[in-house]
TrEMBL record:
Superkingdom field: Bacteria
Pfam short name (any one): Response_reg
DNA-binding among keywords: yes
Species: Polaromonas sp. H6N
Protein name, as recorded: DNA-binding response regulator, OmpR family
Lineage, highest ranks first: Bacteria, Pseudomonadati, Pseudomonadota, Betaproteobacteria, Burkholderiales
Classification via SUPFAM superfamilies: CheY-like
Signal peptide segment: none
Residue ranges annotated for the Response regulatory domain, each copy included: 7-124
Length: 128
């Protein structure tokens, strides 16, 4: 049995998407969301964030989602934190790369804000 999912470190460079997802996760899901606009910001807040889950965009300027995950894995606080990617890049080969990097799942964009929290809870509950 997993500990309950409470805190999500969310990295998304698009302000509109970030605001909608954060509002949906907090208002609908009741989660605490630590939202970051870029990978570098995520790395600076991750040690104190105590996140249960990493929710990462893939396509971002500078450090992309995969680079962000690699860097987060170097930090003791997030070395083993479960990760979900949220991206428009969901071809089978791309999803295989995300899964190979340890992603629990990949949520495709555009997403339904009203369904996002439930979708993440289902993924969380299905972890081995």
């Amino acid at each position: 049995m997993h500990s309950p999912l409470c805190r999500i470190l969310y990295v998304e460079d698009e302000p509109d998407i970030r605001v909608v997802a954060q509002m949906a996760l907090e208002a609908v899901g009741g989660f605490t969301v630590i939202a970051c606009a870029c990978g570098a910001h995520a790395l600076s807040v991750a040690p104190q964030a105590r996140a249960d889950l990493l929710l990462l965009d893939v396509m971002m300027p500078g450090m992309d989602g995969l680079g962000t995950l690699r860097a987060l894995r170097e930090l003791p606080a997030t070395a083993h934190t479960p990760v979900i990617f949220m991206t428009a890049k969901v071809q089978a080969a791309e999803v295989a790369v995300y899964k190979a990097m340890g992603a629990l799942e990949v949520i495709s964009k555009p997403f339904d804000p009203m369904e996002l929290s439930a979708h993440i809870q289902r993924i969380w509950a299905a972890q081995p």
